[in-house]
Amino acid sequence: MVNIHKDGFPVVLGHEAAGIVESVGPGVTEFQPGDKVIPLFLSQCKECRFCKHPKTNIRIDAMSPLDSRFTCKGKKVYQFSGTSTFSEYTVVRQINLTKIDPAAPLDKVCLLSCGICTGYGAAVNTAEVKEGSTCAVFGLGAVGLAAVMGCKNAGAKRIIAVDTNPDKFEKAKVFGANEFVNPKDHDKPISQVLSEMTNGGVDYSLECVGNVEVMVSALESTVQGWGVSVIVGWNMHEFSGQPIKLITGRTWKGALFGGFKSKDGVPEMVKAYMNKKLMVDEFITHNLTLDQINDAIEMMKHGKCIRTVLNVSPQ
User: Fold this and answer.
1) What percent of the chain has pLDDT over 90?
2) Are 37 and 95 in contact (CB under 8 A)?
3) Phi and psi of 84, rounded to 5°?
């Protein structure tokens, strides 16, 4: 639990997990104790205007970020993204939960509740990568590697992995990357490097870093006329670009959770994993316990892991 004296704190963090239903409250009809489930930071009610629209997975949520079902020593403890998964137990609404294959291994499919779906879906759902195309993926964390996998499964011919950490390149090969560029190895803008490599620019680029400068570079790396660039990385800062970059035919798009409608899409991704059509185990570099969470965060900050699974055993 984080303890900071501001609105929204203290809060139980965590939003990527899998678990088993312990009990259900009044009015719950979709779940029963013993169900294997994945919590969803992006809810899906299937009834509102947004959930019914085929072109978006966004839902305008009526739940305030300050609403919570948690208390500690008589004081409110806030819930993160409607999930709060860094805990032995959590309480979620049924629109923030989806049932999965009872045979699915929880310590593997937990990754499908955010990172893998986010990157993979950005390639196959949002960019709509086509067979034989050339792609560039900026950032080789779990989200970026999932984007690489999405490009590969969509049939891309050239997949260029871009990262300032060369240690990530071997891992990217596993997921389908066949070319690698470290911006630190060049004295010219990375967009120029990629343009020269691809005779004018890539067909698709995916920014999986969350850096506004990289977002612009990713757009400029795409070919004029039909290039598509997708912003996947999260950032609240303002950014800008030259209108001519879009007027000449490029498309700039954003993706949240890879465009998947959560309650529908996550079980399908679990099914794909169970049918060996999707890699998940390969993302996991470490397994630790919940009380080692600070060690996991330090490894992440220093680029020493891809995904660390925290195993929780309720007392």
Assistant:
1) 84
2) no
3) 55, 75
Nearest partner of 158 among 206, 187, 198, judged by Cα: 198
Give the Cβ contact number of residue 170 at 10 Å.
Answer: 10
Calculate the alpha carbon distances from 10 to 39, 67, 198 in Å: 21, 12, 49
- Asked if residue 193 lies in contact with residue 127, where contact means CB atoms within 8 angstroms, the answer is no
Q: Where are the domains of the chain?
A: 11-114+260-311, 119-255
Q: Do residues 174 and 282 lie in contact, with contact meaning Cβ atoms separated by under 8 Å?
A: yes
- Which residue in this structure is represented by tokens 């086509």? 130
- H helices present in 122-242, as ranges: 142-153, 169-175, 190-197, 212-220
3-state secondary structure of 121: helix
Sign of CA dihedral 184, 185, 189, 191: negative
Looking at the domain 11-114+260-311, which fold is it? Quinone Oxidoreductase; Chain A, domain 1 (3.90.180)
Helices marked H in the chain — which ranges?
49-52, 106-109, 115-121, 142-153, 169-175, 190-197, 212-220, 244-247, 262-274, 293-301
pTM above 0.85, yes or no: yes
pLDDT in tens, 221-237: 999 999 999 999 988 88
Helix, strand, coil percent values for the chain (each to nearest 5):
35, 20, 50
CATH architecture of 119-255: 3-Layer(aba) Sandwich (3.40)
